[in-house]
Amino acid sequence: MGCGHFRNNVEMRPVAVRRVEDLLIRPNTFVHRNLHWFGDIYNLNKLQGSGEFTEVYECTHKKSGKLRAVKIYKKAILHLNNNRDFFQREIEVLKYLDHPYIIKLYELFEDQSQYYIVMEYTRGTELFQEILEHRTFTEYEVAVIARSILLCFSYLHEMNIVIRDLKPESIIIDGVQIKLIGLGNSCKIIPGKRISDPQSVTYYVAPEVIHGSYNEKCDLWSLGVIVYTLFTGFPPFTGDTDEEIIENVKAGRYKMVEHLWNVSDEGKDFISQLLQKENKRPSAKEALNHPFIQKAKYNHSQTAEPVQAALNNLMTYPRKNKLAETILTYIASQLFYQSDISSLVEIFLILDADNDGKIDKDDLVEGLKKFLGKEVGGAEEAENIIRIVDTGNYGYISYTEFIKAAIDYNTLVSAENLNAAFDMFDQEGDKQITASELKIALQADERVADNVWTEMVASADIDGGGILDQNEFRLLFVSDK
To answer: Mean pLDDT in the chain?
Structure first.
């Protein structure tokens, strides 16, 4: 069987939304094609990198001053090389992902000659470039990088998404912090079914991918190749010709060369576990429990106080109406750099006890007990937190929902953030927000009745004029906590 479409029932809205309370507001609500010209909204800055049919630039959002990255696809080359499916798949998969180690998609533009994908700005360089420049990685650094990648795998595989061709060019690294990019070759699978979709051969693909029958464990092989390369500076599979290299990959023939002599037994065993036949290879969650990876886990004793503060913020997060929650979700998903919330990223990963990229009831109960000593009533408290914080109706707390509720509330609703959010919803730039502008900002279609937008505006329209001015907008967040 080939790849499936990137659709998930969780992300699908009801056929017809006729009540405000039924409208789902999630980070991907704001990800859509902007009908303005790219140059009207962003200033294009320096070139960051280029590929076969793309160029990546740093850019600045004119109104907010926020740095972004934009990947520009040239239509002529894209269509000439028959890579349009790759381009569309990348958008489709990134739109629905919400994980701290996976690049975030913000919005799309199109003109006569080019497509523009505006994404999260990340400092750092491609891991491939670091390897080429012979950066020396310590064993601890390799363990941290590998653990971060495994957390991405665990999240993606839980969503039945397989990367298939992970390589160092698909990873941005800043110190030891990583960000997964370039998921255009990812594939949606049916649990328990194998993929037969043929792939181009690279030095990082698993033998079963070359043979044309594989599952999500092919990603673990790719990680094994990357870890080996980080330790040695070159890939494990060698040969005098490309054909000989591929034959060695198919056979799984590699050597623990002298460059690995100074690597611990745990590090060598980790590589061996990943570079073996699929039926013996661990899953992402199993690999996260390997002794080599355990070296890179956070020291909970050093982070107890920040975790306690975050849990207290979750417990006291104010219940808001739909318009206010929409605004707060926009702020949390689009107005913070990861460097602004790095401590919360760590706390999110600590509370995500089963490493699936979300915080469910069991995770919360365990966290409340471990960090706040809630031996009694933890389950009820966890249910209440999820009921209030889970405004996307996932049934758990997503990464963005966690950031929104765990961050200091005054930081979340700062004047700077509220002004930037108001400007986003104020599509015409006339210092007021109408129901039609709200509909455009949220990219609604005929499945959402117009009365929904009217009622959302009315919920904050103090003078009854049918529009929101900046003062009415701001008053949504006064005296909440």
So the answer is: 89
Range among 187-196, 271-280, 471-480 rated most confident = 271-280
- The yes-or-no verdict on residue 180 having pLDDT over 90 is yes
Using pLDDT thresholds of 50, 70 and 90, give the confidence band for residue 202. confident
| Cα-based torsion angle of the residue sequence 456, 462, 468, 471 in order, rounded to the nearest 10 degrees | -130
Name the CA dihedral angle for 410, 412, 415, 416, rounded to a multiple of 10 degrees: 140
pTM passes above 0.90: yes
- List Cβ neighbours of 330 (8 Å cut-off, separation of 6 or more): 30, 421, 424
Q: What CA–CA distance (Å, rounded) separates 305 from 302?
A: 8
Q: For residues 54 and 62, what is the distance between their CA atoms, to the nearest angstrom?
A: 23
Residue 246 sits at φ, ψ, to 5 deg, of -65, -40
| Residues carrying an active site annotation | 165
Burial class (CB in 10 A: 0-12, 13-18, 19+), 2: exposed
Encoded tokens for 263: 């690597």
Per-residue tokens: 270? 């980790």
CB 300 within 8 A of CB 350: yes
Amino acid at 336: F
Q: State how far the Cα of 171 lies from the Cα of 102, in Å rounded to an integer.
A: 9
In whole angstroms, give the CA distance from residue 196 to residue 116: 31
Give the Cα separation of 127 and 125 in Å (integer).
Answer: 6
Radius of gyration of the chain (CA): 23
E strand spans, 152-287:
161-162, 171-174, 177-180, 187-188
Q: Which of 167, 148, 145, 151 is nearest to 284 (CA)?
A: 151
Of 86 and 357, the one with more pLDDT: 357
CA 431 to chain centre: 32
Q: How confident is the model at residue 481 (pLDDT cuts 50, 70, 90)?
A: low
Give how far the C-alpha of residue 350 lies from the chain's centroid of Cα atoms, to the nearest Å: 17
List of domains in the chain: 31-120 (3.30.200.20), 125-294 (1.10.510.10), 300-471 (1.10.238.10)
H helix intervals, 390-447: 399-406, 409-412, 415-425, 435-441
